[in-house]
Input
Amino acid sequence: MSGHKLLRTINFDMSDAHVFEKAAEPDEWAISGAFEFADLDKSAIAGKLRQAFANGFLGLTSFGRSTFAVVAQAQSSDYDEAEYRLAQHFVTRYGAPDIEAALPAARGELFFITDLVQDAPINTVFTVRRVLDADGAIKEEFRTIRPPTDKPLHARVWKVEPDET
Output
């Protein structure tokens, strides 16, 4: 595939490290990751797991969660690596028989994100809100924070600074 827009994790502060069991590192390629909650007992979703369910994107390097993700341009090699990492995750974490069997599901997850962000400008920040509907199905709502209009779209508009503490 040629270049695509994908999501990258972004941390404005250290709060993700406190609210999620495992926080994603900044600049990981990211997907929704709602599939992780599909087979869970919904009544058992509490605490940090509840926070991940409610509003966490899934980073594709650490497989940790991030509250925010930003639209970024991905090269074909980035897309292919993200696809492979996710397929490998399906094998090691969810018991897919092999990479080839897991690739269609990984492609589907990445296609969902590329479709979601295709019309969003680079550096648009996304958040996700997940809830259970009356039938217990997972519903997702995505919101965006547009980048400032006085910056060129190719310029980085966010900078992560470590806390002083």
